Amino acid sequence: MTTSNESTSSSMDGLKWFTVALLLVGAVVGNYFAGEADAHFLARLIGVIFLVIAAFGVAAVTTKGKTFISFAKEAQIEVRKVVWPTRQEATQTTFIVLAVSAIAALILWGLDGILVRLVAFITGVSL
């Protein structure tokens, strides 16, 4: 059952996403027109950064934004749990992959040569 708080939040989310879009469009359009007016580069840069940060701030308070922030925090926790290989393990694994790739390439090259000769023999075309 939907509570009034959830429906209010979802209706406000539309307004928040519209605000995000306006802020981002304002950053792009403002940068374009300021560039034509030969405005100072640093002022344009600060203006664009401010509008983009404001857009991210508004997006962060939406339902999807909060979900994304929660997901990002959980992903960061999981990355900390990863056991990264040592330099020696990475080097050994790289050499194994290179060796297996070279062997597979030689096998495919040999099969290709055999099949080309077989097809040439069956069709009577000389190489």
From TrEMBL:
It comes from the Bacteria. PROSITE patterns: SECE_SEC61G. The chain crosses the membrane at residues 15-34, 41-61, 95-120. The keyword Cytoplasm does not apply. It is found in: Membrane. It holds the Pfam family SecE. The keyword Protein transport applies. InterPro entries: SecE_bac, SecE_sf, Translocase_SecE/Sec61-g. Its main location: membrane. Essential subunit of the Sec protein translocation channel SecYEG. Clamps together the 2 halves of SecY. May contact the channel plug during translocation. Belongs to the SecE/SEC61-gamma family. This is Protein translocase subunit SecE. It comes from Motilimonas cestriensis. The lineage of its organism: Bacteria, Pseudomonadati, Pseudomonadota, Gammaproteobacteria, Alteromonadales.
